[in-house]
Specification:
By secondary structure, the chain is mainly alpha-helical. It has 7 helices and 2 strands; from the N terminus they run H-H-H-H-E-E-H-H-H. 57% of the residues lie in helices and 3% in strands. Keywords: Membrane, Transmembrane, Transmembrane helix.
Length: 219
């Protein structure tokens, strides 16, 4: 993924969240948190933290946001850092990415799946906690209430649906990152089909006649 694609993902996720997901009558995931989790799993903790900061600031200023600016940025930068650390393993190696954007080899095993699912759920929980802690809204308003398709449901059902959506799609993102990493590893370790170069033997250099050393002649 190029640097341009990363920037577009970070900036467009808040817009799609507000225009599409938040208007769904069945609830939906936190797309901004999922974008940060994906970048943290595939790019590492540092890139995940930077992506969380940028995406969080974009979400904080996207209408109809009216809370404390920087709240979502703090939550998502922490989420990106933690998810990137959880998904990493000792065998991880760094390599140069396109357009000069550094990238890291993706993780293997079940760690990216668990890290992505738990990190996505953690982002949703921390978002509600930060909203209440900063005094932006009471607990019931922070949890959002039930979606329009679930009228009469408990007041916490909307937050539960968002948590379930986000955790499930986070696990799917971690599984996809694991499969991409496994496919890349197989392609890099495949035997090369290039014909090996064989050096031609050099012709032997002509031997030089040895000069005979003439000693004093005896009489």
């Amino acid at each position: 993924m190029s640097a341009v694609a990363v920037v577009l993902m970070v900036l467009l996720a808040p817009l799609v969240q507000v225009l599409v997901v938040n208007r769904s009558p069945w609830g939906g995931p936190d797309l901004v948190a999922l974008a940060v989790v994906w970048l943290a799993v595939t790019r590492g903790p540092v890139r995940g933290c930077v992506a969380g900061l940028a995406a969080g600031l974009a979400a904080d200023v996207t209408p109809p946001a009216d809370g404390t600016v920087g709240r979502t940025a703090l939550v998502l930068s922490l989420t990106g850092l933690l998810v990137g650390r959880w998904a990493a393993h000792p065998g991880r190696s760094r390599e140069a990415g396109p357009a000069g954007w550094p990238r890291e080899a993706g993780p293997a095993g079940v760690r990216p799946v668990v890290a992505a699912a738990s990190g996505a759920a953690l982002a949703s929980v921390l978002q509600a906690v930060a909203t209440v802690a900063l005094g932006d809204a009471p607990l019931r308003s922070a949890l959002g209430g039930p979606p329009s398709g679930f009228e009469g449901a408990p007041w916490w059902s909307g937050a539960a649906l968002t948590l379930a959506w986000t955790a499930a799609l986070g696990a799917a993102a971690g599984l996809l990152a694991r499969r991409r990493s496994a496919g890349k590893g197989r392609s890099e370790t495949a035997p090369s089909q290039v014909t090996p170069f064989r050096a031609e033997p050099r012709p032997a250099a002509p031997s030089r006649p040895e000069s005979r050393r003439m000693g004093p002649r005896r009489v």
